[in-house]
Amino acid sequence: MKKNLLMWDQTLFKDIEVFDIDFIPGQFDYRDTQIERLAFAVKPALMGGKVLNTICRGIPGTGKTTSVRKFFEEVEETTKKIIPIHINCQIDSSEYAIFSRIYTRLTKNSAPPGGTAFKALIDMVAKYIAKEEIIPLICLDDANYLIYNKEFNNILYAILRIHEVYENVSLGVILVISDPDILMEEVMDARVASVFRYETINFEPYSAAEVADILTQRTIQGLYPNVISSEQMDQIVDRTMRCGDVRIGLDLIKRSVMEAEINARLGVTDEDIQKAFSASRDMHLSGTINTLAADEMLILRQIVKMTDPDKFITTGDVRRALPEDGPKLTRFNEIMEKFDNIHLISMGYANKGEGRKRYVNLRYDKDRVEKLLRKKQE
Ligand SMILES: Nc1ncnc2c1ncn2[C@@H]1O[C@H](COP(=O)(O)OP(=O)(O)OP(=O)(O)O)[C@@H](O)[C@H]1O
Ligand SMILES: [Mg+2]
Asked: How far, in Å, is the centroid of ligand 1 from the Cα of 30?
């Protein structure tokens, strides 16, 4: 029976999209409390009051983006007054890009007219909000990238100022931050801290039982029965728990099943899972590399090239090895700090006192990074 099934449509997937990164699952458990808190923060606006700003915090793959998206769907079904705007700060990371996105989403125009200056753009956004009497609810998702790029305070300030400067204009902000090392008190400068009131909503890592349930639900939806055994599912849950990111589990399932399919098998073998794991574990790293700007790539390539288990390298060594028309010192330092923040490298001081040297350590295996860099170039 199963064999015929495979012969018929050549697939073990009932619905492969179920395992895609941006798939919004129909069944979404264990985050009711967080979604209720988002609703609670927005409710006052429906009664003529103001939205309470929130910050959603939790390590990668704990359902922050999905919760916000689910909540936004609900907002859209309930009211026309509040306009949810989801912004991925890995993609839109400058003031102008973010305000263009807000403008486009609000006015449903394609983009602000070419050559619009930033101030004029803010003005257009504010006037539109006032005229339409709407309340934008702006989610800056992955806002940690704004912090690494040092854009965070400027952007937040520009958003918050709108309702200080323009009468009758009100808006709400949801920040999503996945880096547990970030302390809000440290990153917010005084002008932002004095006006930005917020509540924190925590997304705790899922337990093993929760991960198992989430992955099993998805498997039922996306695969034909018995493609993965329950022992294999335990293995996948176990590996997922080691990094805490549900995405790794979903990716592992997808890749293992694809591996089985390529080999015309009706079920996944342990080797398929093993093979899939080597690819899945690079998912984060390759995601990070894909977001890097050209000057950042240049420096990363240099660090990888110089990485040698028998040698120490310093920030000075890296900078001296760069081409003359490479990034200037301030930009170079900024990039190194960002790499440290996004855990691509670690930096440590070599000695005490003046002129301290800083050592640079690549946090990943040199060959793995090289492979991904080559792929990006292709
Ligand atoms: N409770 C859940 N039920 C079903 N699927 C879930 C659940 N939580 C997370 N997922 C799935 O895990 C993946 C990651 O979730 P999501 O993108 O919401 O995480 P995140 O916290 O925003 O991560 P990041 O910080 O890396 O952006 C998605 O594919 C999502 O569908
Ligand atoms: Mg997310």
From this structure: 11
Q: Quick: pLDDT tens for 278-310.
A: 888 788 888 889 889 999 999 999 999 999 989
Residue 27: nearest ligand to its CA?
1
Burial letters 143-163, b for 16+ CB under 10 A, else e: bbbbbbbebbbebbbbbbebb
For the CA of 22, the nearest ligand: 1
Quick check: 89 pLDDT over 50? yes
Q: Which domains does the chain have, with CATH numbers?
A: 2-16+206-281 (1.10.8.60), 32-202 (3.40.50.300), 294-377 (1.10.10.10)
CB 6 within 8 A of CB 266: yes
Question: In this structure, what are the phi and psi dihedrals at residue 53, rounded to the nearest 5 degrees?
Answer: -75, 150
Pairwise CA distance, residues 195 & 372, whole Å: 42
From ligand 1's centre to the CA of 372, what distance in Å? 24
pLDDT classification of 2: cutoffs 50, 70, 90 = very low
Instruction: Write out residues with Cβ below 6 Å of ligand 1.
Output: 23, 25, 28-31, 58, 60-66, 142, 178, 214, 246-247, 250
Q: Residue 227 pLDDT more than 80?
A: yes
Output b/e per residue, 67-80; b: 16+ Cβ within 10 A.
Answer: bbbbbbeebeeeee
Query: The whole model's pTM is what?
Result: 0.86
306 Cα–ligand 2 center, Å: 33
